[in-house]
Write a structure and sequence with these properties.
alpha/beta; 7-stranded mixed beta sheet; 4-stranded mixed beta sheet; 24% helix; 27% strand
Length: 161
């Protein structure tokens, strides 16, 4: 598996903001936030305040075709998962890894039914956050993600992991 050079995030709420805050300093504009319409305009104008720091991101509309991402993080609510996966379509190529760290046990199955099971890693996210308007606050010390294949051999992890 190749290295991760581009990441797209669909959903910049609690979970998406957690990832965006950590990834943007490393990837800069190679972190893409997928948003359209009013949401895109708002993010471009106001950014997002994450743990007290205003951040602006490279926002890409779902219709834009600027090349595939190496990793797509789908961080919507479970009720918006299918639409979020459709919004990410132009970011997902044959080698793109897809993570859906949502509260629910069906998100990986939904992603696998729309794309390829081989692209999907299973994940579990824990982040306790407060969202107020354009502000997201969370404690990174007690937030974490676990991910892997549906069945993992700790001595022989897949290249995707």
């Amino acid at each position: 598996m190749k290295n991760i050079h581009t990441v797209s995030i669909v959903g910049l709420g609690a979970i998406g903001s957690y990832f965006a805050e950590k990834i943007q300093p490393v990837l800069k504009d190679n972190l893409r936030i997928i948003a359209g319409g009013r949401r895109k305009e708002q993010l471009e104008k106001e950014g997002r305040i994450i743990n007290g720091h205003q951040r602006f991101f490279h926002v890409v509309s779902p219709e834009e075709n600027i090349g595939y991402s190496d990793l797509v993080l789908v961080c919507s609510k479970m009720t918006g998962l299918e639409q979020a996966l459709k919004d990410a379509e132009n970011q997902i190529g044959p080698e793109t890894i897809i993570l859906t760290p949502l509260n629910g046990v069906e998100s990986e199955e939904t992603a696998a039914s729309m794309y390829s099971r081989d692209q999907v890693l299973y994940s579990l996210m824990r982040v306790s956050s407060v969202k107020s308007g354009n502000q997201i606050t969370f404690d990174p010390a007690v937030s974490y993600i676990e991910f892997g294949e549906q069945i993992n051999d700790p001595k022989a992890l897949s290249p995707k992991v």
